Amino acid sequence: MTGKPAPVVLRKNLARAIRDGHPWIFRDAVEPPGPLPDGALVEVRARSGRPLAAGYWSADSPIAVRVLEPGPLPDVRGTLEERVRAALRRRLERLDLARTNAFRWVHGEADRLPGVHVDLYDDVAVLRFDGAGAAAFYRDLGGVLAGARPLRSALDRQSGKLLQGAALPGELWAKENGLWFEVSPGAGGKGGLFLDQRENRELVESRAEGRTVLDLFGSTGGFSLYAARGGARSTDTVDTARPALASARRNFERNGLPLETARFHAADAFEFLEAARGRRWDLVVSDPPSFAPRKSARPAALRAYRRLHRLAAAATAPGGLLLAASCSSHFGRDEFVETLLAGAREAGRRFEPEDVRGPGFDHPSLPSFPEGDYLTFAAGRVR
After folding, report:
1. Which CATH superfamily includes the segment(s) 76-174?
2. What mean pLDDT do residues 183-204 have?
3. pTM of the model
4. Lower CB count within 10 Å: N or C terminus of the chain?
């Protein structure tokens, strides 16, 4: 996090984009600076030699520099500490920790800490680094986080490496809007709770009373739990991962929600819907993993979304609710809604959008950084 910055010279005129706050500089936009280690502090300069920004270097990523600050950054550690504390203050202004102690503490570029995300589960912080450059630059971030809030542990999600504190216990629970969730934030895991869908789970709860609910790609049952608390007549949770479904069952038990009306299906969502032809639910939730993690995957993703939405619309009772999500910045909101309209038409049905929204407030995005606006959640009636 410290040291004299190395100069990196732009071969493209990006001064305005940097000034407006875009945090990425791609490799083809800079002159090769010679060998620099991952995480090296750099000073971005125009071809004239004029300093433009401070950032850090990634040796192999297509994103060569992640911009920390337009202009100089004389006190790197002090700046990072203040940004970590400011991000936490913004969350705590809107959260009641007695009801919700699981949330996104640092959302990378939007919190002016590009290349790192920090999720908090009670007193355990889980860090995800966007590549080796971020992991090297933020190598002391566990201590910075612990200085802002007492922590039992800080973990690197990808490797499972302990960055700060003690090893995790065998069982870890966190609370969201008064519901308990079993979480497992070890290597490669997402914690068992997709924090960006918190407000969208509340929407499902508010619409679930007296309805039969189908939760596709349900993981550990987040939408199903909210639906059950909202008075759903029954819930069906579908996921390919049996351990996730076992966790969903334990979540129902921990929260005292009725298991006699909760069913769990270890199945591929597409295959489940194909096999369930003719059966319908009053409320259907579809929250798949990203079909388009890269721009090149867009054509295949469009076909997958249309097929999924055709099957989901066919499984929705007339006048029922279909709620569908996309977690890819390569699809705009209007374009994603069009896949719902088209899928419903292919099923001989009609989708009537009622609400289109994004993630929760703790996953903000910047107007200057559309790449960070990744989640679309659309709700509507199926006729």
Report:
1. RNA methyltransferase domain (HRMD) like (3.30.750.80)
2. 84
3. 0.94
4. C
